[in-house]
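Hi team, as promised in this morning's meeting, here are the two structures we talked about. I've kept the exact order from the run log so nobody has to guess. The first one is mostly here for context; it's the second one we should focus on when we meet again. Sequence first, then the predicted structure tokens.
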Amino acid sequence: MFMKKKAFEDLSVRLSRQMQRFTLEEHGSIGAVMVFFFFLMILLGGIAVDVMRFETQRVAVQNTLDRATLAVANMNSALRTDDVYTTREARARFIVADYFRKAGLPDNLAYVRLDDGMNYRVVEARADVLSHNIFMNLMNIPTLEAVNTSVAEQKITDIEIMLVLDVSGSMAGAKINNLRVAAADFIDQVKATDDENRISIGVIPYNAQVNLGDELRARYNISDLHGVRHSNCVELPIGTDRDNIFQTLALSTSLEMPLMTAADTENSSANTDSYFNWRNSNQATLENNAAKRWCNPSTTTEITLPTKSITRAKAGIQALQASGNTSILLGMRWATALLDPAARDVYDSLIFRRVMDDDMDGRPFAYNSASSVDEDALKVIVLMTDGEHVAHNRIADGYKTGPATIRFSYRPNGARTDSTDTATIWRSTAGEWSVFFESKVGSNVCNSKPFWVPSTGSWQNRPLGLTDTGCFNPTRVVRPADPAYIATWQEVWASVRMNYAVLQFFARPLGANNQTNRTNVYNGVRKILYTSYADAATMNRRLASNCDAARNAGILVYGIAFQAPDAGKAAIQSCTSTPASTYYFDVTETAKIQDAFRLIATNLSQLKLTQ
């Protein structure tokens, strides 16, 4: 019994000592702490990885969302509709979705909403981010989520519209009547939503030329002023394919350009040895018609200066009359010139002269370029034709104004070489004509009779109106008070037809009774006086150049081919903005012209029926 007790006491002592030693032993305890902190570090690093993964996705989605909404909000980007995308909002959703597809994020896009009108566009889009966690999932946080939104807006507060309208002869009758109604309705429809009076409209009628009106013409550096009121057509230099003013939009007010002669170049006169009085309405006098005088003096074809007034704009429309030929490029070129910001000085001068309203101050505004969304002006051209470019001639430089002297060559009947002569037209204060021919001054100067008098059909030694001294005196001084003087070309063109002048003043005296001679002289003089402006192919190229420049500057160009031939359709369609389904209208029926203008106004306005 004692032995068992002794053994038990010894065991208790040993265990107590071992427990004491274990309690006092510190070696190996850091291992548990390290395991704990190591696990904690792994967990915290995993959280950072999960957050970084999530943030990378979120930033990528937000950047894509911002780029997409900015692109759609740009009002120069067309939201065209078709059979698939039947609304503008559907097209906007497609564009935004396409950005996400190309970024590899097609499933993130939640919605796209569009609100747009004539002068604003607001795009709102949302994209969701859902990132599945690797480490945070251990903490019962399986995902990280974010809702990304982006709102982009462009608001255009000012709109400048130019109606460029064909008023050539083929527009006569029902066409011009329907055009007046259609264009007037367009003005009413566009201005109906202009509560802040920020929309201006100008009207540029064109046929073979564009008649600027007295005041607008006076703002440019124009030569060969002929003094015929309401005949203010400028001959824009056609230039070469590499160097011409149709490649740009601004039109310098310092560039010297000739005024087109108000001459009747198309009416005929009989090729005969007989005399017709220069007042003869069938043979000589001018016809008040743009088909005969390319810049016929008339207020009905003058440009209606840009205005915010519905009354003024519609008055310009109602005045339109159809006559003459077709030069689409000239109508377009003056539209772009008057929309270009460089024309602001012209506007300022017109405002100062009180021929343009004060509320046009500051226009034309800067361009709303396709590469930016922060400009605040929209420029629009509506270009209409029912024809195609037709080449035509004009009175040549040197024979528009100034002393009526011409040097020419012709081939006399039966001759092997040309004859050259110089002639000067004289006029008496009574209004009668005589013509001096240098070739008729003979070796016996005194006995020479170099003056042809059409009214008498005779040669004499002095111009009609001066007294007969019995001898031709080439050094005779003609004073301002004398009853005869050297006529000016502008005086000739304001009095008689070109063909009458060529036949009666040159062909009759030199052709005598020989019709072949008269024709040869006629052709020789006429080819000097009357020269080609440009052929149709060149006119088409110049138009295309100006249209390219307009579109590149952000001008919206709508085109209407009004029962036009194929060449006219091609010229208009190639000029318009894209897509053609939005900006080009092929009108095949006379009454449908109103529909075209109505659709353009609707496209501009985008009036909302519900809020």
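And here is the second protein, the one for discussion:
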Amino acid sequence: MKRVFAVAVLAALAAMPLAAQDLPALKIAFNTWVGYGPLYIAQEKGFFRQNGIEVSMKILEDTASKGSALMAHRLDGIGTTADSQVISASQGIPGVICLAMDQSAGADGIVAVNTIASVKDLKGKAVAVQPGFVSHFFLLYLLDEVGLKPADITVQPFETGDAGAAFVAGRVDAAVTWEPWLSKARERKDGHVIVTSKEKPGLIVDVLAMRDDIIKNRAADVKKLIKAWYMGVDYLQKNPGEGTAIIAKAFGLKTDETADMLSGVSFFDAKGNIEYFGTSAAPGMIYKVVAKASDVWLKAGQMKQAVDTKPIVDGTLVNQLGPNP
């Protein structure tokens, strides 16, 4: 009788769907950036486990490495920027943006000499910027806003931090950079900040992009990951000291340095995601951002062909979770 009962139990278990712990961990990667910090808070405080999901995280600084790992199924998802995901899509790299994580809120901007008073004044000028990087997208977006084309400026290729350093040293007249170089721009007698990401919210946004098949086959697990992210964001907001320390340790940074970086970042919670993604009936800002990214990247020669941006973004999961998951 006991044997029959045991066989029946085993048969019932076999018929049940695999539990989250029976599935492999979701493997994600991102570069060293405090904007991804709530993921480490979720790991440290047990929020992944609490939601019944295992997540494996690694640091990959190189965009190409993340793309090749996605294509080879060594990764299930990546942290990237919304505009960068458009370039990846044009290269056939699978990825669907399913979560907005953080946005630059003053940490990025354009500095210039005083004779260049506005973005419009950049016409005919050389600008230090990192080609194909989010700072380049920020510049192209702003140029487009005032009716200028990529060809209206000359790109001086610098990595983003180096662009700011070159400006402060007087080697260039305009640069797209980030902190601490925005603040240091004022050290140059004839230097000032034209515009920062604080005045242009929603443009420089870090997102979670998961492989298409993962979204399709493991949607429940991705929602658990998203919920754990929300919990990490909430914990950081309520416990800034401890949260900042966790992030600093994870990225090998000093706590005060991490706090300075976080001051220029704002995080997307559940309500923020619903607003940013919108609905199929009323699409949110992210659709405008990726559409504009496709347009300006193509014009700037960073993409060989236009892409359909609609499949790149899917707000289904954040909307299913709702504003109070």
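Starting points for discussion:
The mean pLDDT is 93.
Residues 219 and 323 are 18 Å apart (CA to CA).
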